[in-house]
Amino acid sequence: MSKTYRCPVCSNEVDVAATVCSTAACRAELAFCSHCRDITTYVLVEERRGRTARNIYRCDRCQRLGVKCYTWLSGSYCNGLARAGQSVDLPLCSGCSSRVAEVSRNVIGWTLIGALGGLFKRKGG
Ligand SMILES: [Zn+2]
Ligand SMILES: [Zn+2]
Ligand SMILES: [Zn+2]
């Protein structure tokens, strides 16, 4: 279950939840890709403006497209890239969606999503 994740730039070990490489000389921006399930660097491929629009990023490892996880955008502790192209209001990375699925089974999942939505609105003004 425990896998060692490495920064693709400097190959040093990084935390699975790191958004920036901990190596001082590197400091690469990192994310956890939902496609290849690994820590990766990413590039912005499409900038979208608007309240609900989200920037599209490309994973440097698998070259597939992703959007920043809703949890990440709402300012919570997450570094996941959710798969782009899904027509849902809440793009969640693999980690968060499995967490939400777990919670939904206990019926309070939608309360959690509501709380996340409130968080997002407060931050966005
Ligand atoms: Zn690094
Ligand atoms: Zn990837
Ligand atoms: Zn997430």
What's a quick, concise take on this entry?
The chain has about 120 residues and is an alpha+beta fold. About 25% of the residues lie in helices and about 20% in strands.
Topology, pairings included?
Layout: E1 5-6, E2 13-14, E3 31-33, E4 38-40, E5 42-46, E6 56-59, E7 65-68, H1 70-73, E8 80-83, H2 94-104, H3 109-124
Parallel strand pairs: 3-8
Antiparallel strand pairs: 1-2, 3-4, 5-6, 6-7, 7-8
Bound molecules: zinc ion (3 copies).
How is this structure best described in words?
The protein is built from three helices and eight strands. By secondary structure, the protein is α+β, with helices and mostly antiparallel strands. It has one domain. Strands 4-3-8-7-6-5 form a six-stranded mixed β-sheet. A two-stranded antiparallel ribbon has the order 1-2. The longest helix is centred in the C-terminal third of the chain and has 16 residues. It is globular. One zinc ion (ZN) binds next to helix 1 and helix 2.
Largest sheet: 6 strands, mixed
- The total strand number stands at 8
| Count of separate DSSP helical elements | 3
> What is the number of independent domains?
1
Strand content: 15-25%
Q: Strand-and-helix sequence, N→C?
A: EEEEEEEHEHH
Termini separation comes to: 40 Å
Low-pLDDT runs of 5+ residues are none
Radius of gyration: 15 Å
Tell me which ligands are bound: zinc ion
